[in-house]
Amino acid sequence: MDIIGILVLVISFFFLLVAGVPVAYSIGVAGVLTMLVIIDSLPALTTYAMRMASGLDSFALLAIPFFILAGNIMNSGGIALRLIDFAKVLVGRLPGGLAVVNVVANMLFGAISGSAAAAASAIGSIMTPEMKKAGYDPNFSAAVNISSATTGMTIPPSNVLIVYSLASGGVSVSALFMAGYLPGILTGVAIMIVAAMFAARKGYPVGVRVPFSEATRVFFRAIPSLMLLVIVIGGILAGLFTATEASAIAVLYALILSFIYKELTWAKLPQVLLRSAKTTAIVLLLVATCTGLSWIMSYENIPQTVSAALLSISDNPVVILILINVILLIVGIFMDMTPAVLIFTPIFLPIATGQLGMDPVHFGIMMVLNLCVGLCTPPVGSVLFIGCSVAGTKIDQVIRPLLPMFAAMVIVLFLVAFLPDLSLLIPRLFGL
Length: 432
Fold this sequence. Notes:
432 residues; mainly alpha; 21 helices; globular
């Protein structure tokens, strides 16, 4: 291992991040500087460019822009409001009332759109005024919305699980999708319990009883939106199409549904397409630069060095697993989810599978759950910023009501880490 090269990589990367350079550029520049230190300039530049290009040469990656587009169409197509109405009928009478509705709506919308940011924005913008009108503390409302928006990152379809599949060398996307259901639902239930306990202590009202006829009407209004999950996941499991093909079908279905709802017009469509293109460009640039960085880490034997360092601390699998989780929790505080998955999967996956005997599907779900916590934490938590912005509150005021929900998410994380069946039960049932 070249110590100078590693120092250049680490120092330049963190210097650029502190200086406010976007993560993708920081990774790319740090990678190129490191290559220039360890090998000659022409081979360095050529190799890094080739690795970036090869990182994008993947059929599975096509699913990311399609799911991003589908999520943006849904965000603009009136789907969020119908899911909220459905959640009110489903859980509105439970302790916590609108807080529990917020969680369920985020789980449904996050699962359908595959985006925590879209869920926090769409559901939060509708639920926050309603909760405020009902007497809920705005900071508590924001905390519920922020924490529950992350559940959609494990409940399929999820872009980050596709990214993990790429970073891991080809773990089955279908298996990852199925594995995410129980951990995602369990996280949502844990947040609901915390929210309900807090709401009961504060005496917040529950929802009004909805007449059967109205409940039936709301249910049938929500069915077309919910059918997207059935079509996408059912089609994958039935072998009718791949996860990538399912993403294109999701776009087509969401587009037709949004036009039927008359919430999306031809005049608004270019804005949706442009927003999706911008997001896609950011994600794919991250994938490209991180692919080059992964090659550098492999060339410098960094995964092997980290593995040896962890094993030198302890050879107890439980201790090593706890250390990996703690490191990932810390990483999630300072780094967004996509680059974290791309950078740390090649480092920790060999340790998890080789030393701990973990299934790569199980490790992927554990990793994503870790990084979901990071989406809610400063200074890089994108969902935290979106949730605070939507609620019109400040980060320092939201942190306190967020802490019990953090605790609930971490408890679920460790349950998933040490109970593999929570992740692997459904994939095994479907033979994945």
